[in-house]
Amino acid sequence: MKKSRLTILAVFCLICAMALSLFATSVKATTMEFGLQEYRKAREDGAQYAYKVSDKYVWKIVTYNGQSIDYDKAIYCLKAEQGFYTSSPGVFRQEYDTSYDFKNKSSMPTLPVAEEDYNSIVWLLNHAYIQSAETATQDKATLLANAGLTGNIELTDDDLDVIQQLAIWYFTNKEDPVYHTDFAGEPSLQVVLEAKKASDGGTEDYKAVEDKNRDRWDQMEKLFKYLVTNAKSATESSNVNEAPLSLDRTTPAVTAEGDNYIIGPYKINKNNDTPYTLNVTVTDRNGNDLTGKYTLLDSNKTDITDKTITDLVGQTFYLKISADTVVADSIDGIKFSMNGTYTTTTATYWTNSTNNTVQPIVVIERTPQEFTDNNEVFFTVSGKYSFKLVKVDSNDITKKLQGVEFEITTPTGTQNYTTDENGEINIADIEITNPGVDTITIKEIKAPEPYKMLLEEPLVLNVTKDLSNGSYTATDAELVGYDENAVQIQDGVVTITVANEPKIFDLALKKWVSKAIVTNEDGSQNIIETGHTGDEDPEPPAKVDLGRQNINNVTVKFEFQIKITNEGEVAGYATEITDYIPEGLRFVQEDNPDWYTREPLDGRERVATKLLENKLLQPGESATVSLILTWINGQDNMGLKTNIAEISQDDNEFDLPDIDSVPDNFKDGEDDIDDAPVILTVALGDTVLYIGVATLAVAVLTAGIFIIKKYAI
């Protein structure tokens, strides 16, 4: 920059200084002294180099501390050829006393660049390579890679600094073709020259970089085009200082596909172009590294074999883990973690509060930042089964029992259930989260009438769970201490069939002779009480001694008691009682107004009563009816007589059959049928005749002694 130009600018500065101070709202800071240097910091070999573009200097801006020059700060001119005011001719130094946050547009009273170019300049500053930054090595590698520069890099750090400066001037010096030229629609870098400082302090001739090293020049031009082209498309949002990467908020899920589990989708979002480092780890929930145990899949769930997760930034991907690995390693979840570093850029715009003609400069600094993000998905291996309980009648398994109440404990908790109209309890979708055995406890609480509970202790059902085709399912089941055929597994449903036994309906009949009524020849009457109750076993015969009377002039009647007892568990009715009249006895209606005759059965006369048809007999309860039969007089009417009474009709609320008897079947051996033996003796000379009425057998042991054997059930 020439001295005459600086002098003119100084005069302009004095004219404008007063006006500027009237409206500028600044942030006061420690005064900084900046200056221009033709030659840049010495390289490792001690050499210093200067640069021009066409015939114009690309100065290196430095700071002074009063004693030495600091080349290390990254300082850029926002406007080419705007001078440094100095009171000392030939000394290109200037004090600056006002600074602003260039990235905070509202902090500056006047933008030092055109509004339309502001975002482009910010983008260039954010992406500039700063040699002195802690992250310089990574920043440089990222910048070159983004520009498409790989392989043998010929560019020096000075080259990078110069190209970054020229990219800024492309936007701020549009009127000058040296700084702003497009060719074929693309930004074009003008001739860059380089000169080495001579050993005697002089300057060697400037030579075009293109002539010195064509590869180096091509790389400079490519970097320039990259910077300008991307800066042109910059927006306010693209310049936000936030972490460059973040995990997409889509929640990954675990699904079974064949013998594998697919976890995803995952996506690492690229928020901006800020350079970064990235590390990714995939572990189980206990922190165990799963490297080598999973396969990367693309968005179509196709295997990726030539990339790592860090190569998939901005893309959707999945992880695949075999089901065998999940089981063998007891993997209960996947933790996807990423961390890395990036830098935030501080851009401080410096000016002079009394001279707005000074070179507008920006000092950029980098502050290292870290980012971290993770996503954890519980690795619940999908699987479920259902439990079905079927309640049936033990006597007829096709009959399903509704209304049986149970308390059932499954892995999800304890709950009361009642069998439905199909006799079923259905518990669907019992989740399986791990292999092993589920224990289901089944406690019967209440059985519907007329059934009784058979399960005094709760049933224990052990369900074995195993992995099959990528998901858990019930593979076996055992009902402890119960019929193994009561358990079935089909299509993921564990079914047990349990029977209930109906309560017993059992009406029993007992018959005995309570008294004998003898009307003698003289008309007198003897009533002989037997004292029998029907509980005697064996029941002794009722004995009547007629003495030496004319048997044809004597009337003998026997009063029989017939007791019906409910020996079962269900209340019921003895709707009809039938008595089978043996030969030698007859039925007199007048003596038995509540009885009626029935048609004979196999030639045997029958009478019946419905005295108890409306009498509900509760379990253990009894009711009694009586019947009077008259002996048919005659000396030839002697010997064993069989008299039988039977329950010929019964009923109960549930239509249950009698457990051990069939009504009205006249069958020996049932407890709804019984007898009452009687013995009548008549003395005729020295011979005693015995008339016996019995149900089964009379065994003559000695004269006048009979043993009656009753039916026993």
How does the SSE layout of this entry go?
Elements: H1 3-23, E1 27-37, E2 49-53, E3 56-57, E4 60-64, E5 69-70, E6 74-77, E7 93-101, H2 118-126, H3 136-146, H4 157-172, E8 182-183, E9 186-187, E10 192-196, E11 207-208, H5 209-212, H6 214-232, E12 245-247, E13 253-257, E14 260-270, E15 276-284, E16 295-297, E17 303-304, E18 316-322, H7 323-328, E19 333-351, E20 361-378, E21 384-393, E22 396-400, E23 405-410, E24 413-418, E25 424-431, E26 436-446, E27 451-452, E28 459-468, E29 471-479, E30 487-490, E31 493-502, E32 507-519, E33 525-529, E34 542-545, E35 555-566, E36 572-581, E37 585-587, E38 595-601, E39 604-609, E40 622-631, E41 639-642, E42 644-652, E43 673-674, E44 678-684, E45 687-694, E46 697-700, E47 706-709
Parallel strand pairs: 21-31, 34-44, 41-45
Antiparallel strand pairs: 1-4, 1-7, 2-3, 2-10, 4-5, 6-20, 7-19, 8-9, 10-11, 12-14, 13-14, 14-18, 15-19, 16-17, 16-18, 19-20, 21-22, 21-25, 23-24, 23-26, 26-28, 27-31, 28-29, 30-31, 32-33, 32-35, 35-40, 36-39, 36-42, 37-40, 38-39, 42-43, 44-45, 46-47
Helix pairs in contact: 2-6, 4-6
Explain the overall architecture.
The chain has 713 residues and is mainly β. Among the domains are: 245-341 and 370-378, Sandwich (Immunoglobulin-like); 384-502, Immunoglobulin-like; 507-709, Immunoglobulin-like (Sandwich), CATH 2.60.40.10. It is 12% helix and 44% strand. It contains seven helices and 47 strands. Strands 1, 4, 5, 6, 7, 15, 19 and 20 form an eight-stranded antiparallel beta sheet that branches. A hairpin with a 2-residue loop joins β38 (595-601) and β39 (604-609). The longest helix is centred in the N-terminal third of the chain and has 21 residues, at 3-23. The radius of gyration is 58 Å and the shape is rod-shaped. The model is unreliable at 1-28 and 681-713 (pLDDT under 50).
